[in-house]
Give the backbone structure.
Amino acid sequence: MPEVSTQADQDSLERYLGNTIRELRSRHGLTIAEVAEQVGISRGMLSKIENAQTATSLETIGKLASALGVSLSTLFRDYNMPDGSAQLVKSDEGMEVVRRGTKRGHTYHLLAYDRGSIKRFEPFLITMDDASEVFPTFEHPGIEFIHVLAGKLEYRHGQSTYLLEPGDSLTFAGDIPHGPEKLIELPIRFLAIIYYSNGAIDLQ
């Protein structure tokens, strides 16, 4: 069953349209009189449209869009756009965390933090700068993806080892023993993203 448009929806649309038209007109340095003349409406009508004091026809809106140098789709592009909920972690602001095997010369920075009790993925920036360090193997649920940013290392997954250099990526099942086997060129920096597929881990 189609949704019934409410007066609040109509008012919201008119406010959005008026603000967008005013902003585009100002951006192009056009006066109300100049735009009104191109569209074929009075200055008073355009002023009412910009101030959400009147509704107007789709034909007039199309002419306004053309006069302002945009398409109809561009004019309505941001209408009803959902609010974003992105999480920004600036450079060098990732939370340093301690994991099993984290020792001198081996640091983890967590680049995003799941809100709530469910952990769906973990992105780490890992730095290694001590060639004498011996690392344990890791096992965990989910899929892990690593991408090398700097340095060179051999990385073990199960019975196989892989030579990884800058730009190389490796994806593997996390429940098979894995970890750095040999550090060849230091410092080594790589992204490691663990995705907990088939359901997330409950932290409670």
Remarks:
- The first strand starts at residue 95 and ends at 97.
- The beta strands are 95-97, 106-110, 118-119, 121-128, 143-157, 160-164, 169-173, 178-195, 201-202.
